[in-house]
Write a structure and sequence with these properties.
heterodimer, A: mainly alpha, two-stranded antiparallel sheet, 2 strands, about 0% strand, globular, B: mainly alpha, elongated
Chain lengths: ~260, ~280
């Protein structure tokens, strides 16, 4: 029953966006362009150097492709969580909490921004290009398929947890944004370019390194310059699952703490 | 009813009012712009978090590039790091994103009220924007730059006069950015919804104006093309003035030219756009 309600809501959101095809096409185009900018920046950087943080152009593009695909999928699935600060500030969250449906699911399905397929498209095309050099083994095929999905789940969980900051701060949007878009940027480069502290944060606190860096190591089969054991590069799904647990905990704590914004 | 008639009437009225009004409204609008944005102190603090995170990440990438080989395009590590932190600070001073108000007022028709007021709309908005930029210098430029200078190698200006030139370059960069934003917002007169146009600028603008990477790192042909556009006036040029790269007067001349050209273009566009405006009802 519940499932069909969400399906119907999402379908109606999608239909409404397709009602204005020109505007929709422009929107997709701008998302496509937006996602391509960092790729262009990477290509510009490689007109100046032959390797970045010990990785070749092809390898960095592979990392970017994995990160961009994961980001695009996550943005499509849970990008709407960005609206949480508005729901809290206006008190609209009360309405969601009163309905006999999950508040988070309602929030996420309130608007599905189909234009974000533009981002996914850039990620997939880049990924396909970067994967052509891979020496395929059955395990690597699994990694290539699972990594973007696990990365998307991981990023989704991080964003939901980050946006929960709004339960404690009145205007937490920018703080959450720095995590959301910061993670997009940070995961697009090999973590070897960051200093030791940023790297530790990305491996153990906000585990962005598992979105693209470690899967890329698994796909290219190169030794980890940071000396992590080989098993780590296959851990993305586990880390994603753990992060989902953390996000669920943070969300529940936030909702329990929520008292409304007054009359 | 054609809107031009109202404007003509207002212009006549304005002549009458101006002779009584000793104070021009524009200095007050600069102050109002400053005060309006200083209301959102918590938002400014939160925004600093984003600037700081991106400053850290971008500086790391540039440092990694420079560690690989010596200076690129004349930027050593200190200059590149300074470039990144100034860029993050200037982002909110020149205001690359988040300026959709005018387009919204065109769409809803509220622009009629703005046009009817006894001021020059374009000058009034520019004055308000300068006020906003002034507040952004204090709250959004100084902290990230101080932060970057504290934790990274940093290149401060060697000549005292550079501070003055940098302030002018920043003001002119804001004026050029305003000119671009004003034109994009006015596209709502024809498109009704300027969101797509503004979104495209929001994404492309950062790369073309030198926010994401110094333009000197681009291939020579791209640099040659961009030198003919107003875009470097936003980030590349003020930062180069700060870093004392190249001739600052040539930079200011380029900025001044584009600020004036875009202002004139905006004026013509506003006039043509408001001629399209049809006010319904009595």
């Amino acid at each position: 029953m519940g499932k069909s309600v969400y399906a119907r809501i999402v379908a109606s959101r999608i239909r409404s966006q397709l009602a204005y095809p020109v505007s929709f096409a422009l929107d997709v185009f701008s998302q496509l362009l937006g996602q391509s900018m960092e790729l262009l920046a990477i290509l510009v950087i490689f007109t100046q150097v032959t390797s970045l943080g010990g990785f070749s152009a092809g390898e960095v593009v592979l990392i970017y492709g994995l990160a961009a695909t994961a980001f695009g999928l996550a943005d499509l699935a849970v990008g709407q969580v960005e609206a949480l600060p508005d729901y809290i500030r206006t008190g609209e969250l009360d309405v969601l909490l009163l309905r006999p449906l999950g508040a988070l699911a309602q929030l996420l399905s309130a608007d599905v921004q189909l234009r974000r397929v533009g981002r996914v498209a850039v990620g997939l095309v880049t990924l396909a290009w970067a994967l052509r050099d891979v020496e395929w083994t059955p395990l690597r095929v699994v990694v290539a398929v699972v990594a973007p999905l696990a990365g998307a789940v991981l990023l989704s969980a991080i964003w939901i947890a980050a946006n929960c900051v709004s339960f404690w701060l009145v205007d937490g949007r920018e703080v959450a944004n720095s995590v959301t878009y910061g993670s997009d940027f940070a995961t697009s480069y090999p973590i070897t370019v960051y200093g030791p502290w940023l790297r530790r944060i990305m491996c153990f606190v906000v585990p962005g390194a598992f979105v693209a860096y470690f899967p890329a190591l698994a796909l290219t089969g190169r030794p980890d310059p940071l000396g992590f054991p080989d098993a780590v590069r296959y851990c993305s799904p586990l880390v994603a699952a753990a992060m989902v647990g953390v996000a669920a905990l943070v969300w529940r704590t936030g909702v329990r703490r929520y008292q409304g914004t007054g009359s | 009813m054609r809107f031009a008639a109202i404007i003509a009437a207002v212009n006549r009225l304005r002549g009458a009012v101006a002779s009584y009004d000793v104070l021009s409204p524009y200095p007050q609008l600069v102050r109002a712009g400053f005060q309006r944005f200083s209301t959102y102190r918590q938002a400014a603090l939160a925004g600093l978090a984003t600037n700081t995170v991106f400053g850290f990440l971008r500086a790391s990438v540039l440092v990694a590039v420079l560690a690989q080989r010596g200076p690129v395009g004349g930027y050593d590590i200190a200059a590149a790091v300074t470039y990144v932190w100034l860029g993050q600070g200037l982002l909110n001073v020149v205001n690359l994103w988040s300026d959709r108000e005018l387009a919204g007022r065109v769409r809803t028709g509220d622009i009629v009220i703005d046009l009817g007021r006894p001021w020059d709309l374009q000058t009034a908005l520019l004055a308000t924007d300068f006020g906003r930029a002034g507040y952004a210098v204090l709250m959004r430029l100084v902290p990230p730059v101080a932060f970057g200078a504290l934790f990274f190698p940093f290149r401060w200006p060697e000549r005292p006069v550079t501070w003055v030139l940098f302030a002018v370059a920043m003001a002119l960069g804001t004026a050029v950015s305003f000119g671009i934003r004003f034109l994009l917002n006015l596209s709502a007169f024809w498109l009704l919804d300027a969101r797509g146009v503004l979104a495209v600028w929001g994404t492309v603008g950062g790369l073309l104006s030198g926010l994401i990477l110094p333009l000197a790192w681009f291939p020579a042909w791209a640099q040659a093309v961009l030198a003919w556009t107003p875009f470097p006036a936003l980030f590349q040029m003020p930062i180069d003035v700060f870093l004392e790269r190249g001739d600052p007067l040539a930079v200011l001349a380029h900025q001044l030219f584009w600020a004036a050209a875009l202002f004139a273009l905006g004026r013509v566009t506003l006039a043509r756009g408001s001629r399209r405006l049809v006010v319904q009802g009595g």
